Amino acid sequence: MARRCPAANAALRVARHERNVVQDGDFFSSPGQLEPPVRNRESAQSPNLRKPEYLPPAEIRAAVMAVARVHLGVTHDEAIVETARLFGFKSTSSQLRNVIAREMDQLIQARSLEQRNGKLYYT
User: Fold this and answer.
1) What is the pTM of this model?
2) Domains in the chain, please, with CATH?
3) CB proximity list for 22: less than 8 A, separation 6 or greater
4) pLDDT in tens, 62-101
5) Which of 5, 6, 78, 98 places its Cα 20 to 30 Å from the Cα of 71?
């Protein structure tokens, strides 16, 4: 678990055990949440909200899927750049690219995205 206070860790363990929350890496959400909203962080006041490692994996996957739905075949690099833009990032650092690519690979493995002829397609 990420660094949190002991009380928060204990509460999250209980909530997970009782299935009141679902854990995805270091992130938690409601069990019934279908697809998280993709939030633009361009105007975020807190610098932490703009750090790639603080982007929830489920939100990244939702953004990648939104990009794939709009395009009729998108290259891996185009999908990364377009996803970063949805989050309000004007440039894509290597760290941001890696975070998005990791979730994109998960979507390919889960067959939510299909990779053909060097392009990604929404399935």
Assistant:
1) 0.80
2) 1-33 (no CATH), 35-122 (1.10.10)
3) 16, 28, 29, 30, 31, 33
4) 999 999 999 989 999 999 999 999 999 999 999 999 999 9
5) 98
